[in-house]
Amino acid sequence: MFGPIIGQFIVKRLESYSCKKMVEEEEEAEERVASLIRKCSDMRVVQQIHAQALIHFHPISSNSLSFVLSKVLCFAAYRNIDYARKLLSQIPYPSVFAYNTVMRGFLAQNPSQEPVFLFRQLVRDKFPKPNTFTLAFVLKCCSILVAFKEGRQVHKHVIASGMGGNLFVQTSLLNFYTKCEEMELGRKVFDEITERNVVAWSAMIGGYSRVGMVNEALELFREMQRTGVRPDEMTIVSVVSACAASGALDLGRWVHAFIDKKAIKNDLRVRTALVNMYAKCGCIEKAREVFETIPIKDTKAWSTMIMGLAINGLSEEALTIFARMAEAGIEPNNVTLIGVLSACAHGGLISEGKKYWSVMLESGIEPSMEHYGSMVDLLCRTNQVAKAYEFVESMPIAPNPAIWRTVLVCCKNNKTMDYVEIAAERLLELEPLNAENYILLSRLYASCSNWAKMSRVRRQMKDRSIKAVPGCSSIEIEGHVHEFVMGKWSHPEAKDIRKVLLEVSERVREFGHQPWIAAILQNVGDAEKQEALWEHSERLAIAYGLLKTKAPVVIRIVKNLRVCVDCHEVTKTISRLYDREIVVRDRIRFHKFVDGACSCRDFW
After folding, report:
1. CA angle 572, 573, 576 (to 5 degrees)
2. CA trace torsion 78, 79, 83, 86 (10° rounding)
3. How many other C-beta atoms lie within 10 A of the C-beta of residue 599?
4. How far is the CA of 58 from the CAs of 7, 87, 365, in angstroms?
5. Has residue 18 got a pLDDT over 70?
6. Per-residue pLDDT, 397
7. C-alpha span between 60 and 23 (Å, rounded)
8. In the chain, how many H helices and how many E strands?
9. Of 65, 335, 361, 544, which is the most exposed, with the fewest CB atoms less than 10 Å away?
10. Is the separation of the CB atoms in 325 and 332 below 8 Å?
11. In sequence order, which residues have a C-beta less than 8 Å from that of residue 137 and are 6 or more positions away?
12. Side-chain half-sphere exposure of 327, counting CA atoms within 13 A
């Protein structure tokens, strides 16, 4: 009701001005129209103002017309961006503020290249000249779209225009490079900033965290403290996320204590990040403790806790949290249901998984590839290879490589060849150059003693010059994350690590372990293959953990690949022989080794 009344009032007021009076009282007219636009509540009324302005402002008052159209544009930019974009092209002399407003409006909508197009138009027309806000908006657009080439061109303009020393622009450049994961270029911009504020520090630390450069992120955080810049919640979330990515539990605990000591705002984002960190470090009880301190939990907090319990193998507890979420009246999203289905898969809860799948479909949530993958994983983990294959074939969307790999892993674990050839053909069609696929197939054929096909797969790898991705494992010792790569002895304490490894291998051999040399693809003798197995990255990390820590300290390892069969068996044996709890987080899930047994129940 209020909108139409204002519209009628506006029309009458505009009609009361003659052309001559508009010219004479231009400033007063502009202010009156601007005031009326500020009172508007919807686009329909503003469109009436737009129409009346075109009718009643005489062409001689082009400045006034531009002013009114700019006010209409400002209103439309956050309500109807297409209308605002069209209006920008109709303003006789648009200001840089008008361009910036439309660019900012596009940034508030779905990602689009429009801000880049507008920037190019400004540079081409040479009027009006872009200002620091223009550069910040276009760089933000480039960072969202990961448009590296376009962002580099903007950087060249920054240098040419002499605005390279502006902190606002420098921070935007830094954010752009870190979002594009160009850390060297980002660090160069960061080092050129003379007066770094908390935004610049957070951007650089967050960038290191996202690309897995954990030690760099944490060292920069320490430097930030030395310079006296107080971290904010965004900085803390980045640091905690770095700890989560690397499994650096001790550092994560230290940051948690730092939050309390420095009275940093422990808001929902920070606490959710802490829940994620503790869960990904295998300290699930602490994750649950932090989760329970969150007074008002949003969907992300609930989903983080559910997923944390799922990857730690606590399936029933994850479903209990999901039930509590429903009781609290919080609507689940796609991520929540991925966590629920993953919990069912890791726990082999087939009936529960089917129930939640039906609930998801009935609620109108369209399954994503991750949901389908979780259901395939569930069927495979419960040894229903045929049903898993039927489910994959019935999918309304084309299965991705991860789903076909899951089917092949199931065939390997069940030593069945019924669906191997079809799954392998589909997988290699999708990813013909992925070394992991060939390694999986080779090991599958070896597990079924099909040596001819295993040799064929190895020959394909060689003919196509496909190199296996080396295993990489990390362990945190005394606040520093140490990385080990398969077969690499570049660590400063390599000599001592080798001594520990020799002792461990001897004890494991005496215990009766028979190495599964089929896991080694190199064309070497059996002795060399056994030696190569003992150079797998997680064994190097475990040896370093035994060297540097004593019981009851838990040895926590993070690996970039799936744990191989032989390493899994060896780690179980080490946990019994050395009476040590060993937690390994591989690419798929957590493995908690205690007294010769693993939490995954030998299915991963």
Report:
1. 95
2. 0
3. 17
4. 21, 18, 54
5. no
6. 94
7. 8
8. 32, 6
9. 361
10. yes
11. 100, 103, 104, 107, 115
12. 6
Where do runs of H (alpha helix) occur along 464-493?
none
**Who's near 464: CB < 8 A, 6+ residues apart?**
432, 433
Could you tell me the end-to-end alpha-carbon distance of the chain, in angstroms, rounded to an integer? Answer: 62
- Predicted TM-score (pTM) of this structure: 0.76
CA–CA dist 37, 52 (Å, integer): 13
Predicted pLDDT at 510 = 95
What span, in angstroms and rounded, lies between the C-alpha atoms of 479 and 248? 8
**Distance (Å) of CA 339 to CA 84, 275, 391, 395:** 41, 15, 20, 20
Residue 229 sits at φ, ψ, to 5 deg, of -80, 125
Q: Helices marked H in 332-400 — which ranges?
A: 334-347, 350-362, 369-381, 385-393
Contact indicator for 461, 435 with CB cutoff of 8 Å? yes
Q: Where are the alpha helices (DSSP H) in 146-246?
A: 148-161, 167-179, 183-192, 198-210, 214-226, 233-246
Q: What is the DSSP letter of 448?
A: T
Q: What number of residues does the chain have?
A: 604
d(CA 280, CA 308): 7
The model's pLDDT over 489-538, given as tens digits with 9 standing for 90+, comes to 999 999 999 999 999 999 999 999 988 776 565 555 667 777 888 999 99
Q: Which of 559, 560, 567, 561 is nearest to 598 (CA)?
A: 567
Cβ–Cβ < 8 Å for 163, 132:
yes
Dig out the tokens for 538 from the structure. 């997680």
Using CA atoms, how far apart are residues 249 and 557, in angstroms rounded to an integer? 11
CA distance 403 to 394: 13
Cα angle vertex 291, ends 287, 296, to 5°? 165
Q: Is the peptide bond before 399 cis (omega within 30 degrees of 0)?
A: no
pLDDT of residue 33: 66
Would you state the torsion angle of the CA atoms of residues 413, 418, 420, 423, taken in this order, to the nearest 10 degrees? Answer: -110
Helices (H), 16-95: 19-24, 26-38, 43-56, 62-76, 81-88
In angstroms, the CA 58 to CA 61 distance is 5
Nearest Cα to 374, choosing from 341, 350, 349?
A: 341
Q: Which two tokens stand for residue 233?
A: 């919640």
* Structure-block tokens of residue 326: 């429903």
What residues contact 581, with CB distance under 8 A and at least 6 apart? 552, 554, 555, 575, 592, 593, 594
Interhelix angle 494-510/537-548, rounded to 10 degrees, is: 100
Q: Is the pLDDT of residue 40 over 80?
A: no
Q: Are 190 and 204 in contact (CB under 8 A)?
A: yes
553-582 tens-digit pLDDT: 999 999 998 888 899 999 999 999 999 999
Residues with Cβ within 8 Å of residue 398, at least 6 apart in sequence: none
Tokens linked to 350: 């087939």
Distance of alpha carbon 542 from alpha carbon 575, whole angstroms? 10
Tokens representing residue 570 in the block: 């060896």
